[in-house]
Amino acid sequence: MTHPTLSLFFQALLIGLLIAAPVGPIGLLTIQRTLDQGRSAGLATGLGAACADAVYGAIGAFGVTQVINWLVAARTGFALGGGAMLLWMAWRTFSQPLAEQAAPLPSRADLLRCFAGTFALTLSNPATILSFVAVFAAMAGGGIQSVSPLPMIAGVLVGSALWWLILSTVVAYGRKRFTAVWRRRINHVSGALLAGFALWQWVGVLRGL
């Protein structure tokens, strides 16, 4: 890569990392699934979000105006659907029993479900694209508009994926230190917070109507 392209890649990597890092619903799911099923399940969960971030990053980087306008116009439906999905995940997380023995390694189908669920959940939040559009517009204003958008998209994907790799690895490393009591508490707190995120999302929709 040339120097401007490499610089742009690392800027986008940092953006992807910072957008993924705040502990929200995807972070909670990643932590909970890593504790229950191991690092591979947690990482698959996070990578679903990373790929969705890359999709929104691509839309923002290429400046696809019609798609952006459609996503913004449809944000109410996305928010309602995403909130319903969060409530379902909250119930599953809160009520699922603790395993009495070590969980078997997740199958490919299990990993695919973890990936697909968070991919759809992240795409159901069009507010994410506004962050990418705003940041990429500022970067373009800084004189990088002549550079291909591909390094920006790749940087977002790598940065977001790097965060989920770090999170799932750290949680998996301390997995054996969590007793059944603490794991049950984590499940209950995670379920309650996921439900809170869903209700907060719905309140935002009602305020915007």
TrEMBL record:
Query: Does the record bear NADP in its keywords?
Result: no
Superkingdom, taxonomy of origin: Bacteria
The portions of this protein that span the membrane are: 6-31, 43-64, 70-91, 111-140, 152-174, 186-203
Topological category with respect to the lipid bilayer: Multi-pass membrane protein
* Cross-referenced InterPro entries: LeuE-type
Keywords tagged on the record: Cell membrane, Membrane, Transmembrane, Transmembrane helix
Compartment annotation: Cell membrane
PANTHER family in UniProt = ARGININE EXPORTER PROTEIN ARGO (PTHR30086), ARGININE EXPORTER PROTEIN ARGO-RELATED (PTHR30086:SF20)
What is the recorded name of this protein?
Threonine efflux protein
This protein's species is: Rhodoferax lithotrophicus
